[in-house]
Amino acid sequence: MLWITNAHIITLDANQPDSRALLIDRGRVVAIGEAADRLAGEMNRVEKLDMGGRTILPGLTDAHIHLELYALGLQRVDCETDTKAECLQRVTERAAASPPGDWILGHGWNQNVWANGFGNLADLDQAAPHHPVYLTAKSYHAAWANSTAMRLANLSDTSPEPTGGSLGRDAQGRLNGILFENAMGLVERTIPEPQIDQVEAAIQSALPVFWRLGLTGVHDFDRRRCFMALQNLHRRGELKLRVIKSIPLEELPHAVALGLQSGFGDEFLTIGSVKGFADGALGPQTAAMLAPYENNPQNRGMLLLDAEELFERGRPAVENGLSLAVHAIGDRANHEVLKAYAQLRAVEASLPGYNPEHRLRHRIEHVQVLHPEDARRLA
Question: Which of 45, 98, 239, 244 could form an SS bridge with 102, CB 3.0 to 4.6 Å?
Answer without folding.
Answer: 98
